[in-house]
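step: validate -> pass
step: tokenize input -> pass
step: predict -> running
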Amino acid sequence: MTPEATAIQPPAAASDALALRDVELRVGGRTVLGPLSLSVAPGEVATVMGPSGCGKSSLLAFICGTLEPAFESRGRVLLGGRDLGPLPPERRRVGILFQDDLLFPHLSVAENLAFGLPPGGGRRRRRRRIEQALAEADLAGFGERDPGTLSGGQRARVALLRTLLSEPRALLLDEPFAKLDIALRARFRSFVFEHARAQRLPTLLVTHDPADAHAAGGPLMEIGAGSELPGNSRAMPVEPMPGEDVTTKGGAARFGARPGSG
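step: predict -> pass
step: emit ->
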């Protein structure tokens, strides 16, 4: 089954854009990220790229509502026009994938996926959704398997399915490809991006790898090595790799780095 025909979740509404407005993160009076503003349209994969320690993962934690108390944060996160700030993490409907798959070792593959499903729906319907999701990921018949028996690529696919089955309205990617070997990384990237676009999810990827940004094909915001300083970020298009022709739609101008833009 192709991603376009997926039964994992219904497509997001056209108004379900993800927007950050004047976001700034500070620790001990020192600015570690921002201020920055950006908008990510439904079905678009945008990238924030920078070296380790520049605040990329903290930005995603701010969006999810899981930012450590040591941080002082300013700015707003909007999803479909709704301010997520007052909502606890479990009500924001923002899915996230990390470098580690975080599968529960004491649960089967199917039980891991069931954990992601919203409550209700009946046992038979829930089982059918899990079986359909596994089939879409070329994992039919894997439901009873122990996660420890899966390959790295299989575990990564299960982690994505669990996130999508939770019916998020936006998807965050915290370098989920970094620990995969080069060949597997390319295949899994395509798998993730295809499903995110098919589900019309506004998707924000953070990475230090230009190949990830190129594969995403969307707008790019680059945070420089000195990004601890306020406003030290710049928007730029994704450069094609040698021998390839890439057309970037939407334009990096949407990611204006000056405070209050976007």
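step: describe -> The radius of gyration is 18 Å.
step: cleanup -> pass
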